[in-house]
Structure formats: C-alpha cells, structure tokens
Design a protein that fits this description.
With 662 residues, the chain is α+β, with helices and mostly antiparallel strands. The chain has 9 helices and 42 strands. Residues 394-662 form the Protein kinase domain.
Length: 662
C-alpha cells in the first residue's frame, strides 16, 4: 500500500459535510469531494472544482440516490465514511469494504480520494473503484471495468462497459455481455498475447497505453507521442458507449477538447438505440430511428428503444392482407438469424408474410439468399438483484406454475414488461448445475419456438431466471380444454412449431441440448398461438464431440423414452420419443393415458395400433373432417418416433421434413 503524500490537507475524524455547498477540496482546489445534485436528488462524488460546467469524475454508490434534503450529512469516523439521515436517525456506510480503522482522509490533487490508517498507509482509494472515468496517473487493472452513465446529468449505471480483461484485451461491450470472448465487442485492442495482468494507463501528458505486469510497453492506444503538460486529462466511457480522451487547459477558461475517440461513428456501439430501433449517422443525439411499424418507448429518451404500434392478432389467422413488407436499404443487421434460406427477393417477402414470428428479414447478404430475424425483446441477459425481482413479483405472490426445480411467478420488469420469474428452490447439487446450464446455454439460444431467457439473479443463495411471459398458457391448457378441440390445421401448425424448436436444440444452436422433459406442460403458447419450448431446467448439455451421456433419471412418466428405465446412454433420440407421444396427444386432443374411458382406449398408443390395424384411424379425431391420407401420414410419424430402440427412431431433421411434406 502507498503512504500519505506530502503537502496534502488532511480531513480529520469527526469531520462532516452537508448538502449546502460544502465540500472537501484538494490542496490546489482543483478537485472536490462532497454532495452534488442530480435533478431532484442528491449524489456523492468527486468533480473538477475549477472547471465549469461541473464535470463529475467519480460517484459513490451510483445507483442509490439520496433525498434532496438538508437533513442528511456525510461523516468521517474510524469505521469510514457514513451517510447519516438525521430525520430517521439512519446510518449507512458509504464505503463498505473497509477492513482497518480509519485515521484520516485526503482529497488529493490527483483527483484521488483516500482513506489512511494510523501508519499513514492507504486502506482505500477512489482510484481503485472507478465508475466511468480514469484520470492522469490512474490505472485500470486487469479484471476491472469502467461502466458508462445513463447520461451526462444522471450518473447511475448505464448500458456500456470498458473491460480490461485477463486475456490482455481492452474491450468495449454492452453491459452484461453474453460472452467476453470478443464476439459481442464493438471495439477491441486485439492484444491477446499480452498476458493476464495487463493494465490501462493514462499519463500526465495525455498518453494512453497498455503495460504488462513487468512494466513492458504493449500498445499506445491514442497513437500520439505527447500532448501538453498544461492540461488536465480524463478518459471517459460516455453514455453513448464511445470511449473518449478529453483535455482541458489549466490556463484558459475554455471547454473540454476531445483528443481521442474509440469510434468515428456514433453508430458503432452495439444496442445504442435500444430495442427495435436502428442508428443513423446524423447529428441528432441519440441518432436513432424506429423500424417501420414501431414508435419510441419514450419520445424524450430515444435510446430506450421502440415498441410495436400494430397488432399481430390476425397473423396467426393468416389474414395476410393486413400486413406488408417495407424495404429499408443500406442497413447492417448485427445478429444471428434464426433461419437462412436461398430464395429470390419476391419469394423472400412471401415467406416472411407467411411466418408470424418474422418481423425483420435481410435480403442480399449473399446472392439470392436472405436471412430472417425475430425482433428481439432484449439484447443481452440482464443481471437482476433479488430485491428487484421480489419487487417485480410483489413478494412472489402470483404463482403461475411449479416444476421439478422451482416455482414460476408472474412479474413486472422495469415497471412495464410482464415476465415469468422462475425461482429455483434446489440450489445445491444438481439444482445448482441446472441453473448454470440454463444461464450459459439458453442465453446463447435464439429461436422463434423457444421461450426467451431475458435475465437471471445470482444473489447470495438466491437463483432465479427471468423469461418472456407467454400469455396463452401451456399446450396442455390449449389441447385438453372442455370447450371443444382446436382446429386440425391449427394443431398441425403447433406440431411443426414444436418440432422446429427441438431441431434447433439438437442441431442448430452453439451447444447441443437434450431437453429431457418434452410434454404439453413444457410447451407454452404465445399471443399469436405460436408454440415455444420451455423449462430447460431439465436440459442436459452435450459438448460437440459427444453424442450421448449417462445421467440421472429425468423427465415425466408417460413421455420418457424406454432407455431412461434401462440405464442406457441418453441421446437426442430420447427427445424424439417424447415428441412422438406429444404429437399423438395433439392429434387426438387427449392424454396418452386416461383411466376414465373404455378399457381398450386407456393407453393411447395401444389404441392407435388397434385403430391402424382395423383401418379406423378416423376414431382418433372423432367427428373432425380430416384428410385420411394426411392423418395416416401423421400417425406413421408418431409410430416411427416411439420405436423402442433409439437407433430406429428418426432424427428431428427428418421429422421436420416429413411434417413439412404433410
């Protein structure tokens, strides 16, 4: 630890600050520590005292705002600095990780606020806990981040981060990136071989560079030899996601100048404009526009994204006259499509109009090919605190489902979005592994027939997952209702939805996934009656070099493949078997086992074989008018899927091809 610097003005124990313009100044008066105002609230931080307008360089507990009241003060004691709300007699530590007694504090001329022990050794300093800015003489060590503010006047946690990674790279990401391998970075130094203890350094002459653990010079980021010594410098990740090096003259009363910028285009930061919006290189700030058919969530904050201003209610009913394709030329769409087809432009438009899940397509990526995207409701997984989710669910009162690994509650996220929050109740042993499986694997999956994971909570012993909320309940609710059967064509559309979702898990996502518990209760229905696979709490992940695995018993009786009971290796063919059972239930609109009907019909599989032999398949659909050939074709798919030997069952790719042929 460093010792106290000579020539500093010490802040003694018992000193206090109040919101009425009092502050602790550095010796030169260049920097100040104390209360500052953000709108109607108070915050605590460090700023340049001699530069106007006020420039905040560090904020304490940036996401906690204090009431704008004179009945609050900062107090320095042997335990550290505390915030005291005098009207409530409340005392809250401003800095919570102090392990030694504090003897005094100093606001240094470097912009560093420091706490010392009785031996004049530093026990805490603001330079070790930066928010969105570092100053000359300050370092960003490996494993640490700068995180942008929401805006220039709101210093709460924003949407972008600068990470000094242990792989030697300095990287800009959206906050909480799905991966830190560089795939989701929008700016990167590319210093992969520099070691695991690289630091970012800003000199007093404005040079910005990377050093390794031995002090070896790796890269000059600003590509400048030397700037002026008569300036102060700060490196800030701004609210727009761009990293900028600023300078300000010590002798002239001018404004901040930009000496370096990580991007020449405002549109480089990923997710700058929020959801369902796109960025254009215009002077407006933020430079955002909504996609056709969408309007801004908040006209005053256009970077919050856009919401749909039309209803999809007729799409599932094939009322295509209500919809059209709008062309937008020259856009770059930076995400992975869920489907890539080789078609001409006219066929591309027709295909998209037929697919209710598609809101965006991109034609011309390659000659005569196009890609389709769902409009994503989120860009990256969000990390929630337990308190946030407790508030979102009003104390976990609205239970909507219960499974083997936890209970699902309905909640409201960010005050406006309905979500399903799965509270895992078995967080040790296998339950803990399931949580890691879901967060790491499902967070990387995007498909129209999979329920979307939006975020997670890993707060102490609490493990929760936040999903999109499916308004029409489960397939079980849809199929086994008492007010009549859903239409045949509607049911077959659901079958194809389910099959395509399983195919994606088996063959198209980054990490192959065996669902292990496919049943109507784990298939949810969207507002447009699009079926989506849910509950990956029982999913078994396979690495690419593996094709099967031994695992403990999983799944639900009636839907599990025979190999579960034979202590055999479990492969993707176990899901194929479960799909066959579900397909049969969809065809017949009844459970695979029903004890309340004639004995010869109790076990659906046995009754199907009997009807097939007797050429009486029409009994399976009762009074429905269903083409006999199509019904027979569907039954043959069922019987192929539920073969006793796994090797005799088809792959889901073959199943999808057969269904599309139907």
């Amino acid at each position: 630890m460093n010792a106290a610097q000579p020539g500093t003005s010490n802040i003694s124990l018992g000193s206090s600050l109040y919101p009425n313009n009092s502050q602790w100044l550095s010796n030169s008066g260049q920097f100040a520590f104390g209360f500052y105002r953000e709108g109607n609230d108070l915050a605590i931080g460090i700023w340049f005292e001699k530069i106007q307008p006020q420039t905040i360089i560090w904020t304490a507990n940036r996401d906690v705002k204090l009431p704008s009241s004179e009945d609050v003060k900062l107090h320095l004691s042997g335990e550290g600095i505390s915030v005291i709300l005098q009207d409530k007699q409340g005392l809250s530590p401003l800095i919570s990780n102090i392990t030694e007694s504090v003897a005094w504090a100093s606001m240094l001329d470097s912009g560093n606020f420091v706490l010392y022990n009785s031996n004049a050794k530093i026990i805490w300093q603001s330079f070790d806990a930066p928010t969105d800015t570092i100053l000359s003489g300050q370092r960003l060590l490996a494993g640490r981040n700068l995180v942008s503010s929401i805006s220039a006047t709101n210093h709460a946690t924003g949407r972008f981060q600068l990470s000094m990674q242990h792989d030697g790279n300095l990287v800009l990401y959206p906050v909480n990136p799905i991966s830190t391998t560089g795939q989701y970075a929008y700016w990167i130094t590319g210093t992969y071989t520099a070691g695991d203890k690289v630091s970012l350094n800003l000199d007093h002459n404005g040079q910005l560079y990377l050093l390794n653990s031995t002090g070896f010079y790796i890269q000059n980021i600003t590509n400048q030899t030397q700037l002026s010594d008569n300036h102060v410098y700060r490196l800030t990740i701004d609210s727009d996601g761009i990293l900028r090096l600023y300078s300000h003259s010590l002798t002239q009363n001018d404004s901040w100048s930009i000496e370096y910028s990580s991007s020449s285009s405002k549109c480089d930061p990923l997710g700058l404009c929020g959801l369902n919006a796109y960025c254009v290189p215009i002077e407006e700030d933020p430079p955002c526009l909504c996609l056709p058919g969408f309007v801004f969530m908040d006209q005053g904050q256009k970077d919050l994204g856009c919401r749909r201003n039309f209803s999809m209610v007729d799409c599932a009913n094939k009322n295509e006259t209500r919809y059209s394709i709008t062309d937008l030329d020259g856009l770059e769409w930076e995400d992975n499509p869920y489907s890539v087809l080789t078609l001409n432009e006219t066929a591309c438009k027709e295909d998209c109009l037929r697919d209710c899940a598609v809101k965006i397509s991109c034609f011309g990526v390659q000659k005569d090919s196009f890609s389709k995207w769902l409009v994503l409701e989120d860009v990256t997984l969000r990390s929630y605190t337990y308190v946030e989710l407790e508030k979102a669910t009003k104390g976990f009162t609205d239970e909507v489902g219960k499974g083997a690994f936890g209970t699902v509650y309905k909640g409201i996220s960010n005050g406006r979005r309905v979500v399903a929050i799965k509270k895992l109740e078995k967080v040790v042993g296998e339950g803990e592994r399931e949580f890691q499986n879901e967060v790491n694997a499902i967070g990387r999956t995007h498909h129209k027939n999979l329920v979307k994971l939006l975020g997670y909570c890993h707060d102490g012993s609490n493990r929760l997952l936040v999903y999109e909320y499916m308004t029409n309940g489960s397939l079980a609710d849809f199929l086994f209702r008492s007010d009549g059967r859903p239409a045949w064509e509607e049911r077959i559309g659901i079958v194809l939805n389910v099959a395509q979702g399983i195919l994606y898990l088996h063959e198209e996502c980054v990490t192959q996934i065996i669902h292990c518990d496919i049943k109507p209760e784990n298939i949810l229905m969207s507002e447009q009656k699009c079926a989506k696979l849910a509950d990956f709490g029982l999913a078994k992940l396979l690495k690419s070099e593996h094709t099967r695995t031994h695992t403990g018993f999983r799944g639900t009786r009636g839907y599990i493949a025979p190999e579960w009971l034979r202590n055999m290796p479990i492969t993707v063919k176990a899901d194929v078997y479960s799909f066959g059972v579900v397909l049969l239930e969809i065809i017949c609109c009844r459970r695979s086992v029903n004890m309340d009907i004639p004995e010869d019909q109790v076990v659906l599989e046995n009754w199907v074989y009997h009807c097939l032999e007797a050429d009486e398949l029409h009994k399976l659909v009762e009074d429905e008018e269903v083409d006999k050939t199509k019904l027979g074709g569907m039954i043959k798919i069922v019987l192929w899927c539920i073969q006793y030997e796994p090797s005799l069952r088809p792959s889901m790719k073959k199943v999808v091809l057969m269904l599309e042929g139907q």
